[in-house]
Design goal:
alpha+beta, 5-stranded antiparallel β-sheet, two-stranded antiparallel sheet, 3 helices, 7 strands, about 20% helix
Amino acid sequence: GANTHWPQFQELLGAAYSGHPWNEEVGVKIEDPTHPLLAAFGGKDFRIADEIFQFRQPYDRKKLHILLSLDTKTTNMTVPWIERKDNDFALAWIKSYGKGRIFYSAIGHRTEIWFHPQILKFYLDAVQFAAGDLSITPELITRPDPD
């Protein structure tokens, strides 16, 4: 998401980078607890210390299936450089693009993240999903209907 001068990449990804207000421990919310890609987390929100991005257009929650987001209730929301006024800070999502599958996660800037068992399982499942090796029905790729 850091390539701000390549609109086609941003459209493929589903968002454009707009800074990283957090570089500390934050709360992470499981958006879709029963989704197969989130099995590693057992349906439970968690905390993690990492550099956390915020995104701008073409980011649109309605066009993505958000898997993880920043839990604004358990995260320091007084840090400088927060640009989003809607408090919508997605951290991981999937989407279709052409005939392909897209997975994106903003988690993984700190070395210790790559030794976190649940994150590693999440990423393994995500790679298998993107490669087409993990059988996921189309309705699990598109965003769930809002409540």
